[in-house]
Amino acid sequence: MKTRWIGLGFLAVLLGATTPISAGPAKVEELYRENCASCHGAELNAGLGGSLVDGIWKHGNADSDIAKAISHGNTDTGMPAFQEKLSPEEIRSLVIFIREKENAARQSGAPKTKMLPGEPVRTQRASYIVEPVVSSGLETPWALAFLPDGRKLVTEKPGRLRVLDENWKLQPEAVANTPAVLVSSQGGLLDVAPAPDFEKSGWIYLSYSAPAREDAKSSMTKISRGRIAGNKWTDEETIFEADPSFYTTSGVHFGSRIVFDRGFVYFSIGERGEQTKAQNLALPNGKIFRVLPDGKIPADNPFSDRKDALAAVWSYGHRNPQGLVVDPRDHAIYETEHGPRGGDEFNRIRKGANYGWPLVCFGMNYNGTPISAHTEQEGIEPPLHHWTPSIGTCGLAFYDGDKFPAWKNDFFAGGLRGSLHRLRVVDGKVTEKEVVLEGLGRVRDVRCGPDGFLYVVFNNPDMIVRLVPAGAASGGEK
To answer: Architecture of domain 12-109 in CATH?
Structure first.
């Protein structure tokens, strides 16, 4: 095994960095160029110091091992120590940068799975065929939900709620009179979730970027419920609405997933691009909430007796949670959330827990400047798994169907960068992980259908497909 020493910075071209260097924290590309491109090459794969992207590490391949090598150096190999020159935050950003390039090199040499219509795709535990069920007529679909009578509901980000019949035929007219939304950047009509007692109550819950009453350019995530009668939205009730002072013109990080468990409603709101607000319990930003079906606050919520906290908060320190699901075996709640550049997370959500953003994270700012030197800290719940580089986590499903027995009780996490990931959790740890689908588009949502098939909602192109066992194609659009 070869000896190598660590340097720093690189190749803004591969990352698409176009912002000029200015005063303030140094960007990671600059750090690398200035401190060690001469030893590891502009592309991290050459020079006296050896390659940093071939997956071979003499002194340990954990992030902490690489950070230690950068910080303390190695006199035997001539690797200089950078702990006096670089801050812990800058060293952490370099570790992320190296991981990005290592992953890119690995992917460039790996054979790509060709997704051909009707052709089986083999994964570690199962083989499937991609079967389109809706291939036209939708505009930026965001979420999919199944009704007991065989109909389906799909939200479109521009503000429309659409109905699909039992044969997946898209009804031509959107549901009328749904709540007004402010469509800007990531905002719009987002999640849809029928109540567990839908057959009796008819309630359907929606999350969306609601415009402020006094300022049409400001918005905040809002949760409402209503019913559909004659293709019209009726009986609307507000389940959660932030104080007007919390509305913002920011167009990012709305969160917005909704799940139900044992008589409670859980939903997520992102930190709206304002990082530190995720740590403030008095603000709705960067939280997961728990309320009763009518929006009232349960008495046993973790912060319900504190005057300095919103009583509906269940957990905090989140960045942008866009995956939320319940494991029906033990009622544990799991979540995926976007990191910045690196550090997308898969978490088990615990009552009152702090998930660390932005005090602790596995990523850095998009422009390559550091956020935090810490990936763990006492009193902060660590992720079960993190993705660095980011996959753009969006949509999370628990598979409890019967069509893929080898996937039973696994989690499926969507990624806006075009991938679907399978995760197996055993005794609180991720024991298996793999990419099971990629290259078809941006994965916006993933659901286990009542028929046992796995359904995936895509943007670019806008479509819905289902994964069926190889040799068991069930017919597509009708």
So the answer is: Orthogonal Bundle (1.10)
